[in-house]
Design the sequence.
């Protein structure tokens, strides 16, 4: 089969389209119809920041085929397929990568769910892309409630567009932080107001019950003055500083910081997340936002675009 192979750390030029052996027999074999390129894929390819190599491999990549989210069709099932049948359309998430290929084997580390009939494969990966991160942050880390005020930083990205829609669905009042060119997009997704970060300092607005920094553009220290007395600052990017802030602020009353390691959630938890997001997609509470589409062989160009930091929603590849 064809796959994008990452055999050494470096720029997108290290990615190569190669013929590789098909996945070994497993519970479910899926023909990949759509996948996404994400910032974690870029980190796994480049080996940057340096601490990423603790997971991806110290000297060279441990996982040579990237891609953690995929949609496609079941083409083969094993004895423990748990009700899956050939021809089923599925959305899947794996912690061991492997989705940037024509086929992927779904093993114990992977979670899969059914794609609603009304949703295309490309739309399915775009919707689940950011929502698989935003849902646990808002629902569990923040315990977001109807009527609360939420600020979403990086609101036009994959996680940001999902967060705006999820918070709106819950009944929160959403303020989006993005560039002026993306204001119409985030308003169409449910944001009640927009802060253009090129023109205005969001810390002078608020106060907010939740500040969700989806792109590591701020910090707890800078955001604290824009939070309510018991408000929470959430970030998706781990660092020594945020881990210390999370520990110290959780032990005291008042504003606090938190991070959720969504990629480390159990398979059962991710299966439930996939199902919840699919239900919201079927009811059109969640809509896909696709910036660009690339073929499998164009994956290096997809990486270059993601690394600009200015994508709107998701970048989709179609093997």
Sequence:
């Amino acid at each position: 089969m064809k796959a994008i192979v990452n055999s050494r750390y470096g720029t997108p030029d290290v990615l190569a389209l190669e013929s590789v052996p098909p996945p070994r027999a497993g519970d479910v074999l899926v023909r990949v119809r759509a996948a996404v390129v994400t910032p974690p894929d870029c980190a796994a390819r480049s080996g940057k920041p340096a601490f990423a190599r603790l997971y991806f491999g110290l000297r060279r990549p441990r996982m040579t085929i990237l891609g953690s989210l995929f949609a496609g069709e079941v083409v083969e099932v094993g004895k423990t397929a748990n009700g899956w049948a050939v021809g089923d359309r599925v959305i899947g998430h794996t912690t061991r990568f492997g989705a940037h290929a024509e086929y992927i084997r779904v093993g114990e580390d992977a979670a899969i769910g059914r794609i609603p009939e009304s949703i295309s494969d490309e739309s399915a990966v775009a919707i689940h892309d950011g929502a698989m991160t935003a849902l646990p942050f808002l629902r569990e880390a923040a315990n977001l409630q109807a009527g609360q005020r939420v600020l979403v930083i990086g609101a036009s990205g994959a996680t940001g567009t999902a967060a705006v829609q999820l918070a709106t669905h819950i009944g929160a009042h959403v303020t989006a932080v993005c560039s002026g060119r993306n204001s119409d997009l985030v308003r169409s997704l449910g944001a009640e107001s927009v802060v253009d970060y090129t023109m205005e300092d969001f810390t002078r607005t608020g106060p907010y019950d939740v500040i969700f920094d989806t792109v590591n553009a701020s910090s707890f220290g800078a955001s604290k003055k824009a939070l309510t007395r018991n408000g929470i600052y959430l970030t998706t990017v781990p660092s020594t500083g945020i881990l210390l802030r999370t520990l110290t602020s959780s032990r005291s009353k008042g504003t606090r910081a938190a991070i959720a390691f969504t990629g480390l959630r159990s398979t059962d938890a991710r299966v439930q997340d996939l199902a919840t997001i699919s239900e919201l997609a079927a009811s059109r509470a969640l809509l896909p936002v696709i910036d660009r589409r690339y073929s499998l062989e164009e994956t290096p160009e997809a990486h270059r675009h993601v690394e600009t930091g200015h994508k709107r929603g998701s970048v989709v590849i179609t093997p």
The CA atoms of residues 141 and 260 lie 7 Å apart. The chain has two domains: 2-114+289-318, 130-262.
